[in-house]
Amino acid sequence: MSVYVKPCADCRRSRRAKTTPARKRKVCPDCRWIAIAPPSLARKSLGVFGTKREAESAVNEAVLNAERGIDLAPSRVTVKELLDRYLADRESLGRGAKTMDEYRRFNALYIEPRLGSVAVAKLRPGHVSEWIATLLKEGGLVLKNAEKGRVLSPKTVRHAFALLSGAFSWGTRVQLVARNVCELVSAPSVRPSEAKALTSDEITRLLFVSRGSRWGAFVTLALTLGARRGEMCGLNWEHVDLEVGRLTIRQSISQIKGSVTVKGTKSGRSRVLPISRMAIEALKTQKALQAEDRMRAGALYRDEGALFTDELGHRLTPRAATNAFARLAVKAGISTTRLHDTRHTAATAMLSNGVDPTTAAAILGHSSPTVTLQIYSHLVPGAQRGALDRLGEHIEALAATDCNQIATTRRLAKKKARRSGLPMVAGTGFEPVTFGL
């Protein structure tokens, strides 16, 4: 067992400590024990302990951790090493390439430059609070050799804090970290932002400038379906039934630094959606456009079966769709150049016109109606106002009904019931007749 005595000051001064081997020394209560990892773990120091039993337990625990893939002593693990291991673990669990790219970017820009060299055993809640304040005030690294970055929004800082907290939570589960210090720190408060939707005039102008271009069908489908950018680029002709008027969203396209990959939808489920007559006509136009491209390109044309393609038949990428929409938005003179705002526009139109959140969530591909309400909660009061206005109009119409006519009708019904010997039953929604009471 790799444990050694660390003699106290009195024992060090004694002659016995100088002549007796370290393994055979008798210790006094003031002496301590040093735990050293075995040679298979590069004989790393595991710390100093009060008793021999505690030191031996530390060595045994280090061996067990090494068998589970944790071969560093917790006292020596830095925040950088913890994040690297955590990101490797997330990637092994099948996290998306785009998600992992965002994790690594946040780590490289905001966490590692300021906290990377700190040992996790020495990180305190005060350090994390100071780190949050620094990011809000000075920002993180933007360029490789930059000393200071731009000021970050509370939302961005909150995402960085969530990544750090997730790494420490994972570290506690694998016994690499004693506790999650982030649990004692308050995350930056973020004011919920309302989704940006196009006005009716902006929709008209956008459709006008896109009509006749390669992006006419794409814009029409984006506005009438509210699908995500990657889902639009991932559509194939085999997913569309023009005769029935139905479209199936089964996959999505992800693009990271020029690399394009096909993955499942964000919710992990496919969804079958009916499409409008306007969308059907736009898709027929798109099919005719691809036929013209095939004739012009000849042998150079590559038919991948994609719904939206370039002149040579290659599937359109999300980045190309974003850039094209920005150009169309500038040409149309609308208030936004974000392609994702077409999704907000579709959701806004549905909820403002009385579509219930459950149906809207199914169309948009949200995991639950709760997500829809969180994003578009500012539209719910307007929908409630419309529903209550219609209810008020109905009650007002009932109140304007001639009460004398109602009384006459009920009196005649009572006489008829008496002649036939049937008991008198009050009408639905009214109190029983109580004459003379």
Could you characterize the architecture of this molecule?
It contains 17 helices and eight strands. The chain is mainly α and 437 residues long. The protein has four domains: 3-74, no CATH class; 77-184, Orthogonal Bundle (DNA polymerase, domain 1), CATH 1.10.150.130; 200-352, Intergrase catalytic core (hpI Integrase, Chain A); 404-437. Residues 142-147 and 433-437 have low confidence and may be disordered.
Summary, kept brief:
This protein is mainly alpha-helical and 437 residues long. It is built from 17 helices and eight strands.
Q: Outline, from the CA principal axes?
A: extended
Low-confidence stretches: 142-147, 433-437
CATH topology of the largest domain: hpI Integrase, Chain A
The radius of gyration over CA amounts to 35 Å
Secondary structural class: mainly alpha
Described by strand count, sense and barrel closure, the largest sheet is:
3 strands, antiparallel
Q: What is the H/E order?
A: EHHEEHHHHHHHHEEEEEHHHHHHH
CATH level-two architecture of the largest domain: Orthogonal Bundle
Binned strand content: 5-15%
Q: Helical region count?
A: 17
What's the end-to-end separation, in Å? 99 Å
Determine and state the CATH class of the largest domain.
Mainly Alpha
* Annotated CATH homologous superfamily of the largest domain: Intergrase catalytic core
Give the integer mean of the pLDDT values: 81
Give the strand order, joined by hyphens, for the main sheet: 1-2-3
**Helix share of residues?**
40-55%
The number of E-state strands comes to 8
Q: What count of structural domains?
A: 4
